[in-house]
Amino acid sequence: MKKVFKILLFFIFLPFLSLANDKEIRDKIEYLIMPDFRYWTMEGQTERKDFDKMNEEVKEVISNHNFNGVILFAQNVKTTDQTVRLVDELQKASKIPMLISIDQEGGIVTRLGTGTNFPGNMAIGATRSKDYSNKVGALIAKELKSLGINTNLAPVIDVNNNAKNPVIGLRSFSSNPKLVSELSIPMIKGMQDQGIIAVGKHFPGHGDTAIDTHLGMASVDKDYNTLYNTELVPFKEAINNGLDMIMTAHVQLPQIEKDYFVAQNGEKILYPATLSDDIITGILRNKLGFNGVVITDALGMKAISDNLGPTEAMKLSINAGVDILLMPIGLHSLKDVKALDESIDKLVEAVKKGEISIDRVNESIARINKLKQDRGIVKDNTDVNVKLQNALNVIGSKENRNLERQVSKDAITVIKDSGLKNINKALFIVGDDNQEAVTRFAINRLFSEGKVPFFSYSILKYNDKTDVDVLKLIAENKYDTIFVYGMMANESSLNPEVYRTKVPNVISQVQGAQKIYVSINKPYDVVAHLNYDIVAISYGFKGMDPTELDGGNKAFGPNIPAALELILTKEKAKGKLPVDLPYIKDGKLTEEIQFRMEK
């Protein structure tokens, strides 16, 4: 009788035991997810607003889920005051101390609306200075820490060994694996010494691709030995030097990976690194010995989302050996939260069916928790006004600004210099309103500091609608000096009929003026403009963040002011080429090198 009674009790309580088990699994799956709240549309409203202030809906979403953390974007971090308060509210809403992450690389990928905008990795590569790299890493980390941000999705440690690369470019230190390693390690140490989690990206290397994975699938067709001696070099060194976290790339390695999945449209797609156990577990974990946290690049990027639904993308990533699933679904409304919850429900079922190993999930949870413990990620109950005062003392401090200016100037590389003559009346031909603003700032600062004699100047903007004949007519016989900012976005910019090359070509024909070409985007364009009197590279621009299709942060950096200061004060340039510059023929980059990077 007792045995029958026990059996009856078991079946009575079985549904409740199952529910408890489901809740435990669900909590674990949620813990692998790092969402964004870049925008938010309140229930019953249609207007999408930047999420820069906590609201009750988002507070409830965070408190009702077990997310390991969140990622912030420019839309979230506009001012120091606002950012400190938002981060404080995010942590308070969570049951656990969260990873608060951001892509504060420096240079063209700079999220913070206020603070110090260092010149970027390629500029640091041009300085060859390990000390600069370490200091820049440390000061970026100090600013983030003062805001309550504890994880920096940086630095980029890709080797930019493809001049046609549309998305890495200036974000890389160099086209030389050894130099990338030598400069990335000090930056990583600078960040981690300040208690900030550093994230090397994008494994196994995004530098030799011709496609932006925000827009489509990219491929690196190399065997393991070639990868081991090029793309993987900086990752090996970073792992050996205690890197906290590595971000995956949605990049296919056809000579490594042989398995396919069937995309939503029925097409067979080779697994990219993010979804590949051969690459994440086989190479990163087993061959390179990385035991830290692996985070995906955003799973909502088109390389993934055009081919897989979010549930399958998360499932494959977990099984590949990834620990943190970044932005599988953008959470911009309660409707999005519902969609994510439905995906999580399916993943819970996948665990129960054995399609995802619970041991595999537990491994990731253990790695995340260890990292939080190692970096002291705990609930900080300090009064928010005290936090704010500290942040105001740190963000954009004199020390930071001085380093920003010095590093930027020491990076400027001059590949042709016929000598600057005295200037009485100058014309600056720039790309947009922000470049005009930063040009005025730079010149007026030099005037006020007494570093250059006063001269009059005008500024004209050019774009794809510019009438080049009218522009040439304006420039001729009115100015003794003409500056042109070169803006190579990708190889198509080098086409002589595209305005980015056509305008500089026309201006080079103006007679009676000294002409100065300043490359402010990818540096490869200078080869097409060697008929200028002075040709310089600044490794940075004010413009769209290339990882943000909606524009992101528009705060300009220090690169253009640094180039103008060096040229106008006639200082000797210290910067050395960090990449090879190939010959350009018929508007195309060739395989033949015209200027080799200097040792």
Describe this entry's structure for a reader.
The model is unreliable at 543-554 (pLDDT under 50). The protein is an alpha/beta fold and 599 residues long. The protein has 19 helices and 22 strands. A hairpin with a 2-residue loop joins strand 21 (581-585) and strand 22. The chain is globular, with a radius of gyration of 26 Å.
Provide the structure class: alpha/beta
Question: What's the alpha carbon Rg, rounded to whole Å?
Answer: 26 Å
Spans where pLDDT lies below 50 across 5 or more residues = 543-554
Residue-averaged pLDDT, rounded? 92
What fraction strand? 5-15%
Number of strands: 22
Task: Give the % helix.
Answer: 25-40%
Distance between the termini: 87 Å
Treating each run of at least 4 consecutive H or I residues as one helix, how many helices?
19
Main sheet characteristics? 6 strands, parallel
* Physical arrangement of strands within the biggest beta sheet: 4-5-6-7-9-13
Based on Cα principal axes, name the global outline. Answer: globular
